[in-house]
Amino acid sequence: CMSDSLRKARGLLLGVAVGDALGAAFEGHRSVDGDDLVRQERATTRLRYTDDTALTLVLARHLAARSNLVSVDEDALATELAREWHREPWRGYGAGSREIFERILTGTPWRQASEDCFGGQGSYGNGAAMRVAPIALVATGPSHAIELARRSAVVTHAHHHGRHGAMLQACAAFLALNSDPGTPLDRQAFLDHLARTVERTDWRTRLNTVRTLLDSASPAVAASHLGNDAAAFTSVPLALLAFLQYPDQPAETIRYALRAGGDTDTIASMAAALTTARTGIQALPSAWLERLEQATEIGELADTLAERMSPSQ
Ligand code: R7I
Ligand code: MG
Ligand code: MG
Ligand code: MG
C-alpha cells in the first residue's frame, strides 16, 4: 500500500501533467464554457502534455540526479532544459524561451541569453513558475524552496516577475505538500505564510487580491481581476486562487482554472499541482490519468523524488 508521501509526490507531479494536458486544448481561449469542459472531460483521446510538463520533468530529473546534495546546478539545468526543447520543439514553447534555448545550444552563456531576452529586460513569462513544482519534493523548508526556485528560474527568466512567480509557486507547492489533508486547509494562514515569504510589495498586493476573491469570485471575475495571460504576475496568483477555492478537490480546481480561460494549460497545471500535492494522487479522477501520455514514467519519477523528501516531511 502506497505511503502518504508517495501519494503526495505522485499527486504533485501527475497533477502538473494532467492539468497541463487538459488545459492544452483551450490555451489562448478568452473563456471556456461548460459544454467545452464536458466534451474534454468525457473524451477518450490521449491526453498530450505540453512544454509545461516537459520542462517540469527536466527539473525533476535534475533534482533526482543530485542524490545527496539537494541543489540546482544552473549551468547543467540550462543545458538540460534547452536540450529538451530541441528534442521535442513542437510542445508549444513561448517565443522567449525558444530564443533562449536556441542561443544556449549554440554557445551563448545562459545568463547572457536570459538577460538579453525581450529587448534586455528578460522574460516575465510564467515559464519558470510552470516547471518549478518538483522543488517542493526536495526542499527542507519554505525558504529553501524559494532559494532553489530562484536558482532554477534565472536560467531563462531574468525579469524579476518571471523569477518571483517561480518563487511563489515553489513556496505554495511546499506548503500544500506539507499540509495535512485530514484537516481543512486554513486558507488565510496559507496566504499569510506566502505574504511573509514574498519580498516584493507588488506581489503581496496580488496575494491580497487573491484573498478578496476567495469563495465568491467566479472564474471569469477572477480572470478579470488578476489577468489570465502567460505573464507570471497574472497567472501564478490565478492558479493559487483556483487551488484555494477547492483545496481538496483536484477536479474542481482544474475546472475552475480552465473556465478562467487564457493560459489554461499553465494555470490548470500550476493549480492542480498544489491541490494534488495536498490530497495525494488518489483524489485525481482515474479516467484522466488513464488518458495521460507517459503516466507510468511520471509516477516512477515522482517515487524517486519522494525518497528524497526530508525526514520532517
Ligand atoms: O515564460 P515562457 O516559457 O512561456 C510559458 C508559456 C506557457 O503558457 C506555456 O504553456 C507556453 O505556451 O508558453 O516563454 P516567454 O516567451 O519567455 O514568455 C511567455 C510570453 O510572455 C511571451 O511570449 C510574451 O508574450 C510575454 N512576455 C513578454 N512580453 C513583453 N516583454 C514575457 N516577457 C515579456 C517581456 O519582457
Ligand atoms: Mg504549455
Ligand atoms: Mg522564457
Ligand atoms: Mg501555457
Defining traits:
313 residues, mainly alpha, ADP-ribosylglycohydrolase fold, 17 helices, globular, binds magnesium ion
Descriptive overview:
- This protein has 313 residues and is mostly helical.
- The protein has helices at residues 4-23, 34-42, 51-65, 74-87, 95-105, 110-120, 135-138, 142-153, 160-177, 187-197, 201-213, 219-226, 232-245, 250-259, 264-279, 286-291, 295-306.
- It has a single domain, classed as ADP-ribosylglycohydrolase fold (Orthogonal Bundle).
- Helix content is 65%, strand content 0%.
- It is globular and about 45 Å long.
- The two termini are 19 Å apart.
- The site of one magnesium ion has 9 residues, from α5.
Summarize the helices and strands and which ones pair or pack.
Elements: H1 4-23, H2 34-42, H3 51-65, H4 74-87, H5 95-105, H6 110-120, H7 135-138, H8 142-153, H9 160-177, H10 187-197, H11 201-213, H12 219-226, H13 232-245, H14 250-259, H15 264-279, H16 286-291, H17 295-306
Helix pairs in contact: 1-3, 1-15, 1-17, 3-4, 3-17, 4-5, 5-6, 8-9, 9-13, 9-15, 10-11, 11-12, 11-13, 12-13, 13-14, 13-15, 14-15
The structure holds inosine diphosphate ribose and magnesium ion (MG) (3 copies).
